[in-house]
Amino acid sequence: MDRSDSPASLDGYVPFPEDRIAAYRDAGHWRDRTFHDVLDERSSEAPGSVAAVGPHRELTYGDLADRTRRLATALRSRGIEAGERVVFHLPNAVEFLEAFFACSRVGAIPVQALPRHREAELRHLFEQFDATAYVTAGDRYEMGVDFVELIDGLETEYPALETLIGVADDPATLPNGWHDFDALCGAEVDEGALDGIDVDPTQPGVMLLSGGTTGMPKGIPRTHNDYVFQWEHMADVAGVEDDWVAFPSVPIGHNASLNCVVGAAVWTGATVAVEPTLKPEALMDLVEREGGTYSLLIPTQLVDVLDHPERDDYDLSTLEVLVSGGQKVPPRVVRDAVEEWEVGFCNIFGMAEGPLVCTRPDDPVDVQAETVGRPIADAAELRIVDLDREEEVPRGSTGELAVRGPGYFTGYFRNDEENAENFDDDGWFYTEDVLARRDDGNYQVFGRIKNTIIRGGENIYAPGVEDVVAEHPAVANVAIVAMPDERLGERPCAFVELAEGATSLTLDELSDFLEEKGLAVFKRPERLEIMPELPRTEVGKLDKKRLEELAATNADENPE
Ligand code: AMP
After folding, report:
1. pLDDT tens, 425-441?
2. How many CB atoms are located within 10 Å of the residue 313 CB?
3. Where is the AMP-dependent synthetase/ligase domain (predicted)?
4. CA of 431 to the centre of ligand 1 (A)
5. Against a cut of 0.90, is the pTM above it?
């Protein structure tokens, strides 16, 4: 495809080098399909198949293609141009898919705010991305805060922010100047207006955000080509079929859902079933109601469902493949899920920046429980390097994971400092995650470099210890973090959420258990805090930064 007349690269985006673009095209990894090209292909193959179903609405692939054309025309007529950033702030809802593919048609870039983001994050996003539009839930969905009311008026502080869109059952509830989402989707299609748009698939089609509750999120631009490449491979390794019902269990704007569930489903022509409330009961209800087959859950969500007192009241027999990751999945949880539901299990190591490494549904359960498997695509380049980032470590040894390839990002948006720190001159991205590659080719995750607990010079990788603690019957969820110590530098502190029915757990009981399990003495937690609920990040992971703060605040009270 001739892209010589493509618009200039987006300011603040680090483009793929020309030679890599050419190589990925030559090898067939990149086929220059935009997100909406994928939708249009599915819609022409099977227009009547259900693309999206929510509690109140259902859209076929034909409907979705049609409504996104209408919405794209409306966005275009409001002046939204290729390369502009649109902040999405929506729950898991059918409207998300409409907005996502409509933006793709005009070449606009959705910025994936999460429902738990609040005013501070939204202000940061408006400014950092010079957003020209904001789409949020009006009275149709409950998001904890009335974001229409919150944002109304703020636009005067952000001159670029001209278009405000609300998803409303009653459009009269939207303030003056706001656009009603449904009305925009009902606009007449002006083919002429859309035909003139040439969306460059080597340019960003979506802006994911880095996680964490402290510090503001960083923009992770993903091009149409590198993202679609991953949709295809994720669908392939998970074995997604066109009659499957895929349901995002974490917020739909997070890579875990958008890439591994929604992308893989649309690539295949499967149905995406959405449920705005991500509580375990609502998810189990969705599986029963829609015949849910496939999803990605954060490990704590799996624990919540596995330990749920009413789990057996729901029919979950349609589940075929479950993916879990985003945080270390305790082996016990993998084994329980596989045994309970007879599902294929993809234990996944994933990052919004690109890396997706996972076990296959038909791997032996030991591999699924103990490792995160292999990269989803052979074309992915992975290296495990020493902590000086100089040499590859021998097979089986731990080191930092560095990556490069047709499915990975090329740099944070407008963030030269982070990019200089985490990329080398050959385009390798250093992930700050410690992994090892076993002789059988499967990778194991040891944790973030920064979360490694260094006790008197000895490295303790918290996830390995957490796995053993999680085997204690009184433990539902555990996070182990460093607490500062004058003599040893750091010592491990465990925060535990008790299992259903358990009433207490003492440090001595835990230590005895770890002794029985043969865990080295220096790795054992030296302080135990029981919490009714461990703090979670906006995507549902256990929030280690917050726990480190808690451990540091009370460090004086450490038992000797
Ligand atoms: P995110 O920014 O939400 O995409 O999170 C990416 C980070 O989550 C990675 O850099 C890892 O530190 C962590 N992570 C993802 N999957 C796993 C896993 N299976 N085991 C341990 N950590 C993981």
Report:
1. 999 999 999 999 999 99
2. 11
3. 40-413
4. 10
5. yes
